Amino acid sequence: MEPPKLNSSSDSVKRAVKQIKGLEGKKKQIDTYYEYEKLGQLLADVKAGKLDKNTIAEDEMYIKGLQLEYQKRYLGGEEPTQCGSEVTNGVQGGKLNTPFDKKQPKLPPKESGDYKKPAPAPDKKPEPHVPEPDIPTKKKPEPDTKPEPENEKNVVKDNKDNIIVSGDNNVIIKAGSIAGKLMEGAAEAATEAEKRNEAMKNSKENYTAAFAEGKQVAKDLIGYTTTAEKQNVIRYIMKQSPATIMGFISGYNENDTVLGIKYGKGGLLNQIENEFGWTKSEKQETFSKVISTVLSWADSIGLEKDHSYKELFRMLEVVLHEDGKIDTESADYLIKELVSKGMARSGI
Questions:
Q1: What is the mean pLDDT of the segment spanning 234-243?
Q2: CB 64 within 8 A of CB 17
Q3: In which band, very low, low, confident or very high, does the pLDDT at 89 lie, cut at 50, 70 and 90?
Q4: Interaxial angle between packed helices 245-255 and 207-221, expressed in degrees from 0 to 180 and rounded to the nearest 10
Q5: Can you give the three-state secondary structure of the chain, one letter per residue?
Q6: Phi then psi for 291, rounded to 5 degrees?
Q7: What's the rounded Cα separation, in Å, for the pair 285 and 273?
Q8: At what angle do helices 245-255 and 280-300 cross, to 10 degrees?
Q9: d(CA 243, CA 199)
């Protein structure tokens, strides 16, 4: 009979125990020594806080109850001991050390002629029968399929550098540091994908408001720009972040027109470069703000290997570390290319 499960034990531990039960023997109980060993490994992970840190005590009690049930059923209520010098599947010498009586019965004194060896007397306290545990022929089961984990939460390492991937319907055990590196790489890739999706989501949510601000900047820079309009443009530019820059650039590019005709040759940076009344430091400050924000946004959505990204990055180094003189028409073109690709990825 399986010990009662605590309602407060974590779902991750319950799923792991369910999978361990299905490794060998009967699928709904711990009935082999290999499964008993895996309980010990799971208990070590629980104590180390590798599963649910909020239910460590409850999970320990739950696993220890399963271990005690196995000991009572198959080991006579005692912890298994080990003998010999070699370890096979976690059992030294390939078998458990079962206590036995080493005493030999004494022979009676010789009477007349020959004497016969009497039958050995029964032990005073007969030892309880201890069934031999079911020792698996394989150290680890080889699964037919090897599904990749959905995220890093269901990857657990035991103290033998094995990896247990716990899902809803399977437990896969892979051994060695190479498997560990593969699993860590998969978990990192999943995390990066989540970050990219979150960045695109933020850009999409802020698109409408940022587009309106870019539209206003285009309006302020067309024709003669007053001091108040210049200050308004600088304020809007310095306000932008990676979450808003896509909508801001789109709003400027789509409204930099007069009667439907493109105003000027380039985009935002080229227009600022050709404005009167702007100091060199004001131009350099706005250039670095626009370029660095575009690069941060492009990196967050996975465009860091794009050719336009690399070229724009080199321009930023010039703006920050040299005289600040760059080809603004080329910079505007590279920005436009990155924004177009980002909009496509975000579904806009």
A1: 96
A2: no
A3: very low
A4: 40
A5: CCCCCCCCCCHHHHHHHHHHHCCCCCCCCCCCHHHHHHHHHHHHHHHCCCCCHHHHHHHHHHHHHHHHHHHHHHCCCCCCCCCCCCEECCEECCCCCCCCCCCCCCCCCCCCCCCCCCCCCCCCCCCCCCCCCCCCCCCCCCCCCCCCCCCHHHEEECCCCEEEEECCCCEEEEECHHHHHHHHHHHHHHHHHHHHHHHHHHHHHCHHHHHHHHHHHHHHHCCCCCHHHHHHHHHHHHHCCCCCHHHHHHHHHHHCEECCEECCCCCHHHHHHCCCCCCHHHHHHHHHHHHHHHHHHHHHCCCCCCHHHHHHHHHHHHHHHCCCCCCHHHHHHHHHHHHHHHHHHHCC
A6: -65, -45
A7: 12
A8: 120
A9: 7
Question: Would you mind telling me the total number of residues written for the chain in this entry?
Answer: 348
CB count within 10 Å of CB 80 equals 19
Distance of alpha carbon 108 from alpha carbon 118, whole angstroms? 8
What is the tens place of the pLDDT at every residue in 90-136?
Answer: 433 334 443 334 444 444 454 444 445 555 555 555 555 655 655 55
Average pLDDT score over residue span 307-327: 89
* Pick from 211, 201, 287: nearest CA to 254: 211
Compute how many other C-beta atoms are within 10 angstroms of the C-beta atom of residue 187. 18
Q: How far apart are CA 180 and CA 165, in angstroms?
A: 11
The confidence score (pLDDT) of residue 209 equals 96
Residue 15 and residue 166 in contact, taking contact as beta carbons nearer than 8 Å: yes
Q: Token digits for 314?
A: 């080199």
pLDDT interval class at 173 (50, 70, 90) = very low
